[in-house]
Specification:
- Residues 192-254 have low confidence and may be disordered.
- This protein has helices at residues 52-64, 87-92, 114-123, 135-144, 183-188, 203-216, 256-260, 264-289, 311-319, 332-344, and strands at residues 9-16, 20-29, 32-42, 67-73, 79-83, 100-104, 108-113, 131-133, 153-158, 162-169, 172-180, 300-305, 324-329.
- With 348 residues, it is of the alpha/beta class.
- The chain folds into two domains: 4-75 and 335-344, Nucleotidyltransferase, domain 5 (2-Layer Sandwich); 134-331, 2-Layer Sandwich (Nucleotidyltransferase, domain 5), CATH 3.30.420.
- The longest helix is centred in the last third of the chain and has 26 residues, at 264-289.
- The chain contains ten helices and 13 strands.
- A hairpin with a 2-residue loop joins strand 2 (20-29) and strand 3.
- The strands form three sheets. A five-stranded mixed β-sheet has the order 3-2-1-4-8, with helices on both faces.
């Protein structure tokens, strides 16, 4: 690598979005950025083959540059992260070591199923993947860029197609969950004709009762976080809750006249926020009630927003979930590409 630094290196990060692949390409020589450009390719079908146009483009880039690194951010469900690095930790988390490939960090491990890994290898068979990152690994590296919290803190990585939720105390993982978000899920969660029937729960009482249960049951643990410097996923059910800013004084969320002014984008954004809010509620319930985890009380939340989180959503996190909130806007393509550059140059 010492000599390679003096040659031209091309780094290509690939982010799969709802309808397209976003490729960020960075040309680096002697540790300095020489060029940067973006290519987008429509996702025509999600099968075991890469779109021909994108495949040919990647091959052409590999032929043009002597050193080319293709970097992929994992977004499949067969990934996760757990607290601990030993065989007994995986057994405790009910993860079969023979079915996953693992990456170990200081005090926790990330993993991906061989099924998902084989699927990725088939799709990129002709071009290959040089670096594969878990959203939890990305989230971990993002939080390391700030002053580490001395108390358990909720971290959220918000992307177009997914939301990654974790709890870290310092650089130690307590809990993690990965959720996929699709347009069908978003629109399915918003029944325009029946919004007023959305089940409303007592947010404050709910969290207070969880804290009471924690004290009564000897403070339950939580350590099924899924994280990997290459993959992560965790599945959880959802529970319906509305945002305080969207429904006021018991009135319907939107009147018929107001609905005429609402675009499909507005509906999708509301539905997406509702889905994320459900995920947050489920994750917090799992964290506080599952005795697998150390469920120390959470007072702070940090969001790394790579897509579009509304102000209403942020207000709900602060007011309904009683969390002090910090927001950091990020470009996920830049973050993943720079992570690959740092790893190749031995800076991680």
């Amino acid at each position: 690598m010492k000599l390679q630094k003096y040659f031209t290196n091309l780094f290509i990060s690939i982010i799969e979005e709802e309808d397209s692949y976003k490729l960020l390409c960075k040309v680096v020589k002697k540790g300095k950025l020489q060029d940067k450009f973006i290519k987008n390719f429509e996702i025509k079908s999600k099968d075991e083959k890469l779109d021909k146009e994108m495949e040919e483009y990647l091959i052409s880039m590999q032929e043009k540059y002597s050193y080319t690194y293709i970097i992929l951010l994992l977004n499949s469900m067969g990934q996760g992260a757990i607290r601990g690095v030993g065989k007994e930790d995986f057994e405790k988390a009910s993860v079969e070591l023979k079915s996953v490939r693992t990456v170990k960090f200081k005090t926790w491990s990330a993993y991906i199923s061989f099924i998902d890994l084989n699927w990725i290898q088939k799709i990129y068979a002709k071009v290959g993947i040089d670096l594969l990152y878990s959203p939890f690994a990305v989230l971990y590296n993002l939080l390391l860029g700030y002053k580490l919290k001395t108390q358990p803190t909720l971290y959220i990585l918000n992307q177009e197609e997914s939301v990654t939720i974790s709890v870290f105390k310092g650089d130690t993982l307590y809990f993690g969950a990965f959720y996929k978000i699709s347009k069908d899920d978003v629109l399915g969660s918003v029944d325009i004709d029946d919004w007023e029937n959305e089940e409303e729960e007592s947010r404050v009482e709910g969290l207070a009762s969880l804290d009471d249960e924690k004290n009564e049951e000897d403070e339950e643990e939580l350590s099924n976080l899924e994280d990997l410097s290459e993959l992560d996923s965790f599945d959880m059910d959802t529970q319906d809750e509305e945002f305080s800013d969207i429904k006021e004084n018991g009135d319907d969320i939107l009147s018929d006249s107001q609905m005429e002014d609402v675009s499909i984008e507005d509906i999708e954004l509301y539905g997406r926020d509702l889905e994320i809010y459900k995920f947050l509620n489920k994750a917090l319930k799992e964290y506080y009630k599952n005795d697998l985890y150390e469920s120390d009380f959470i007072e702070q939340a940090v969001i790394f927003d790579a897509y579009d989180m509304s102000q209403e959503m942020m207000d709900s996190i602060e007011n309904d979930l009683l969390l002090d909130l910090q927001m950091h806007k990020i470009d996920i393509s830049e973050v993943v590409c720079d992570l690959g550059i740092r790893e190749v140059y031995g800076e991680l």
